[in-house]
Structure prediction request, 110 residues.
Amino acid sequence: MRSAFTNLLTNAIRYTPAAGEITMRWADKDGCLAYCVRDSGIGIAPQHIPRLTERFYRVDRSRSRETGGTGLGLAIVKHIAMRHQAKLEVVSEEGKGSTFALVFPARRRQ
Prediction:
């Protein structure tokens, strides 16, 4: 779980400019528990969102090289989420930022 949480936060830091804002929080989402990381970074175009969790998929290969991404991080997060009966939800808008949420079913709450 630590790897998944760290990956989401690291990505937010990597793709948010110095003057940007990043928030992490636990939230109730329709009775489920969600770990959310929201940033005011560069955002992601809608056509890329469904493929983000594919191994080695990069939205912009040249930009990913500059920031050090391998294209494996979100694939690992998705795998970890599945092992914990959770799902990864992504909401993003280019130029306005992104929110990544690991949503755990209510039965996993303690």
The beta strands are 22-29, 32-39, 87-93, 97-104.
